[in-house]
Specification:
By secondary structure, the protein is mainly alpha-helical. The chain has six helices and no strands.
Length: about 100
């Protein structure tokens, strides 16, 4: 009985909203590409691309349109996110930044 309450308490702490936000922030810091994938502008563009392709594929079949919707959304989302990530400024070490500021 005591073990069950400890498990519940641990699960509650692990799934609390504050911890979820902290874990998301840690994940974004560890994986910089994730920040670009979660950017709302990129998601909206991916949705628009998927909608246009789905409308075109509706001329052929509803089943094809469903597949095109899912595949085109995820493909556009990943490609736009990677493209945005590649456009970012190169990462510099903090020492280099401090030296640049001193000059």
């Amino acid at each position: 009985m005591a073990e069950e309450s400890e498990v519940r308490r641990g699960a509650r702490e692990m799934l609390s909203p504050g911890n979820v936000n902290e874990r998301l922030e840690e994940a974004v810091e560890e994986r910089p590409l994730l920040k670009h994938l979660l950017d709302l502008r990129i998601v909206v563009r991916a949705v628009l691309i998927a909608v246009v392709l789905t409308l075109i594929s509706l001329l052929f079949s509803a089943l094809l349109a469903a597949v095109v919707l899912v595949v085109s959304f995820f493909a556009a989302w990943i490609l736009l996110g990677v493209r945005s990530y590649e456009k970012r400024r190169p990462t510099r070490e903090q020492r280099e930044e401090e030296e640049a500021e001193e000059e």
